[in-house]
Design goal:
Layout lengths: L1 H18 L1 E9 L9 E4 L5 E3 L5 E6 L4 E5 L6 E4 L5 E6 L3 H6 E4 L2 E4 L7 E5 L11 H4 L8 E4 L8 E4 L13 E4 L2 E3 L23 E7 L2 H4 L10 E6 L5 E13 L11 H14 L12 H9 L11 H4 L16 E12 L4 E12 L6 E6 L1
Amino acid sequence: MRKILTPIMVVAALPALAQAQVVSGRVVGADGNAIPGATIVERGTTNGVSSGADGNFSLSVQPQATLIISSIGFTTQTVAVGGRSTLNVTLATSATDLDEAVVVGYGTQSKADLTGAVTQIAGSSIQNQPVTSFEQSIQGRTPGVVINQGSGKLGQGINIQVRGTSSVTASNRPLYVIDGVPITFQDQSQAGDEPLNPLADLNPNDIESISILKDASSTAIYGSRASNGVVLITTKKGRQGQTKVTAGYYYGTSAPTRFRKFLDADQYKTLLAESFTNAGYIDPVNGYANLTEAFAQEGGLDYASTYNTPWDRLAFRNNGKYKLFGSDAANVAQYDFSAAGGDAKTRFFLSGTFNDQKGIIIGNRFRRGSL
């Protein structure tokens, strides 16, 4: 009996051994960088592994198995093995998952559990825009927040009201916190009186996210300084993976779109001559002998002058006309460079920028260089 059963048991074990196969591969993101710690699980089972620091994995699965690959911040992907032994997977970034983590005064909180009045803006929404400060980029993107600029001076402070006007004489400016460090302005009175904007020194392309805290529960940690709301700015940091180098440049020019209409020299002389005549100034007995004398005595003007200076255009660069290059062109140029990367222990982010923007008015210019 033993001689009969032994061959049968061996034959029955052979199909079971033949069913298992090893699948190896690499998990990367949309930018080609490896995704360490990604979870690879055989669907319908508890059989799974995690990708290594270089994104590589190896897993023994059943034939015709289906793998589920997932990682925080990326869209879960389902891939059928189909008899393949090598499987490389590219995961797309999940914008929904990234937005779930909202930065508040005391750290981060899940958006689903957030009960306070917080508005969050991703850094990608304000990048690569021809503005001198990030406040100009978030205009119209923050519900319930009033943002306006007092004048057209480049680099001037921007008026931001998170909770409306709470004081007539004191400042209505919110508290700015950059990476946990509160920013103190030189002038604590009205924002429009600030000659320069300290936040203009911050490169908008270096911002990871902006959170605007509106209610008392979200701003309680900052005390009375947060009576007008809090603007939390989180800058970019290095991430584990391959070093990523980014370089950018943009250039543009501007000109006035509409000019005020003024009288030229001939039109002004005609109008003034009619007024002198209608007023009875031209009278050889009781007035002036002619218009030349009336212009000289009443207005200090030379009636016979041929000058016709366009005073309405002299305040503008290149007389208000478009010009792409040149010292008198109202152009803007920005150069950006950044490098980010690191490993499990050390991470780095290095960036530098230079911005040179000339306004349409002569003398209005803003330059920023940071590293």
